[in-house]
Amino acid sequence: MEGNLVNVLIYGLVNSAVLMLTSLGFSLTFGLSGVANFAHGGLYLFTGYITWMFLHYLGLPFLPAALFSIVIVGLIGTVIYRLILMPVRGIVLSEVIATFAVGVAILEFFRWRGFVTYEFNLPSFVKGSITIAGVNVDYQRLFIIAIGIGLAVFLWIFSHYTKTGLALRGMAQDEYTALSLGIESDWAAGLSMALGSALAAVAALAILPLGLISINIGYDVLLVALAVTVLGGLESTVGLMVASLLLGYAVIITGTYLSPHWMEVVYLAAIVLGLAIKPSGLFGKFKELEERV
Amino acid sequence: MKRKTLISVTLAFVAVFLISAAGCGKQATTPEKTAEKAVQPIVLGVPTALGSIEGADSLRAVQLAVEEINAKGGVSVGGVKRPFEVVSIDTREHEPGIPAHDALAALEKLITEKKPNAIVVGAFRSEILLSSMDLISRYKIPYICTIAMSPEFEKKLEGNYEKYKYMFRMCLNSPYFVDNLTKAMEFTEKKFSFKKVYFINQDVLWAKATADALEKWARDNGWEVVGHDAYPTGASDFSSSLNKAKAGGAQLLMPIFDMPQSGVLVKQARTMKVPALIVGHISPMGPGTAWETFEGEVEGMVHFIHEIGPMPVKAVPRSVEFNENYGKKYGEELRLKLSGHGPGPSYDAVYALAGAIERAGSLDPDAIVAALEKTDMDGVIGKIKFNRNHQVIYGVNPKETAISFAFQWKAPGVRVPVFPEVAAEVEIELPPYMKK
Questions:
Q1: In this structure, is residue B343 part of a structural domain?
Q2: Do B273 and B166 share a structural domain?
Q3: Burial A155-186 (b: 16+ CB within 10 A, else e)
């Protein structure tokens, strides 16, 4: 029983970090520009496959392969905005449908091209594990925790204390006021798409070494990102962290004390309950006033 | 300028259209085509999850068998040699969230549009196999399933033979699989004095049926079942079960999975230093490339492949021949990645059908069914004979029955056959992390 508790504490934290890292890009893009990038899962998986190709077809070492992938995926984010989102900018439903279609197209392209076998994986940063309070945890999971926390802190500082970050947030809060102050809407949205996509790439590079790269992961990533951001508040970094912790622990507790069978249901329940009880999320601000009215 | 471009494009389009129309006309009147038209091919339908590894490998195995048979002139139907023609459709049933009726709609589309004379490979999921039985009985098409494993298939067939007699199963079913795994459990009990086991399965019909039957057998035979968990398709964190297995002192970990994410389980078990021998079925552990993919962390795992096919077994000469021919046609890389479930029986299913059609002397489905029931041939999977419920009989002697097969991963990345005795090169050994 005690062993279970320590395991829940440690793996709950690991799981929370995985969720936070997975959702960071999705949440950031919405928080900075109001664009809901439903191609997030597709870009996540795209990173896995192109990094694998850089490693196996071009023989690049992991670090340059990873950096190239992050840059390429970031650029793709901008291209998606310029080519697909700009014509429908401001029509939320069209933005969602367009980005979702792009995500599905990416995922199904890889399925069509036969990327379904079992050899696709990325190497761990460092192999091996350590024992914490009697529970073994591998270094890769510790890296995930460190990267997740590091990025969340960096992004919070970026969006609150840099001119670019403040400009982006201003655009998300009130586009017309921001425009009147000289902040260009398309520049802001394109940049936030690039940043969010690059973050999806970082998440993929850190998390995919835990297992294999398979198409369905792309869909799962989108579900997780939605659950975390809906629960935490679509534009809130603090909300993202709190929601990741809540969901991360809820999933592990469910698996340990109820049944692993119900672990996936936790995400769906979070979306449904979150929307039903507090549609703006735990720390969401944008819709709060509307809800009160 | 624009006008000129428009005229050029229009002219080019007309030219292409005329050339293709002329080509079509010429093609239609060639003597070869006329001769081909006279000899109608025997259409083999392959409706399965083509995006899955098992489905894709099975389709390749079918195409290989068809190519071999066609190279010899085809199948003699009432004295006329007719070639096989393969038509396939992707049912996508292996993907999470694809409802059964979508897979059934794909099957019916293939039947109504391509009008196959017989179906091979068929359903990937048992849920789809069982629900497609009524559809097949309506269209009366001989159908040899080579992937879905639930024993409910035989129960359903036994309950209404006349209705469901068109369906056969060439692959291993769950009870045979359970039987093989219990033999492995008996071996570990005898050799290593193991008595504590933990079952983890994917929450799909075949895996659940297998793990439930194993648990019952374990309890009936004095084993302590430390735990038994089911994970939904797509799950990728197994720390809850592994922690409980470690805390409960499980000596044997028996996973039953066919999803790509299940590969995480073995890596996570090593990370968490669970001191248990892993014996079972995790699809990503089957290919010859798994050692490299999982950075050597598969060492010691005993992986049961359902049927012979992905590795040549000397005691079964057809399996050696199949591996050689598969490697020649598709390349050594694809041969090494062959799935442990599907390809062997899919290849054999085409030969069994060819034999049955020749014996029946016609494409009448009832005549083919009657001939299939009398099948007695040496295949890739061993001796092929159907029982009265149209399931190929599996055992441990390939001269008498089809056989299943298990290997253990050993350094420096080789798959060493350990089961059954007739094919084993060594006995199951404890992995390095369990040796004191």
A1: yes
A2: no
A3: beebbeeeeebebbbbbbeebeebeeeebebe
